[in-house]
Amino acid sequence: MTEPTPDALRRQLRTWCARASNQFHRAAIDLLDDTGLLDHPEVRAHIEVATITDRQGHSTTIAWIKWSTLPRFQQTGPFGSIYDRLVPLAVSIAHGTPVNLQAVLPGLGHHHARAVLAAVARALGIADDVDITDAPSYVAAEQGRRQALSRLLADNARSADEQRPTYLSPLHPEHIAPQV
């Protein structure tokens, strides 16, 4: 069987979750997907793909993650600490393996924290009922940080232009003595 494209693999994983009516696996898969882990070959090695046929003879290709092997991956894997924290959390959501939230949650960036919140909402079965949005105070603070960064970059660019020595070619008119 040929390797499915990333989009096909996502559909196959979600098809399996829907057929199994397993919101916990779907939540864990979404967490891995939202944080970019489904695209890594090291994670894909733990994904099985198969074609199943129902009683009416309709074939469907599905995929599932071998959750029990992912903890071994995260202990020896090449990813940074953020992934070493998110993989066990995904395994915990999907497979029920205990995870120390005090070790997993601190230091998550905004994007990763949103992915965790969305996964928890999906696992609880309330993903369609809640909207995880940025608070007005966060939006204002983020806009302030971006404006300050833009000003700093603009000031540094002007400063660099002002301090840059001007190179004049020996043939430049300023270097040529006027002929009398």
What does this structure look like?
The chain has about 180 residues and is mainly alpha-helical. The chain has a domain at about 5-125. It has eight helices and two strands. Strands 1-2 form a two-stranded antiparallel sheet. A hairpin with a 5-residue loop joins strand 1 (about 45-55) and strand 2. The chain is elongated. The mean pLDDT is about 85.
Question: Which key features would you list for this structure?
Answer:
180 residues, two-stranded antiparallel sheet, single chain, mainly alpha, 8% strand
* Secondary-structure element string: HHHEEHHHHH
Which structural class fits the helix and strand makeup?
mainly alpha
| Adjacency order of strands in the biggest sheet | 1-2
Overall mean pLDDT stands at 83
Number of beta strands: 2
Specify Rg, calculated over alpha carbons.
26 Å
Measure the end-to-end span: 86 Å
Q: In which range does the helix fraction lie? A: 55-70%
Shape: elongated
Strand share of the residues? 5-15%
Please outline the major beta sheet. Answer: 2 strands, antiparallel
What is the gist of this entry?
This protein is mainly alpha-helical and 180 residues long. The chain has helices at residues 6-20, 23-34, 41-44, 70-76, 81-95, 101-104, 110-124, 136-163; strands at 47-53, 59-65. A two-stranded antiparallel ribbon has the order 1-2.
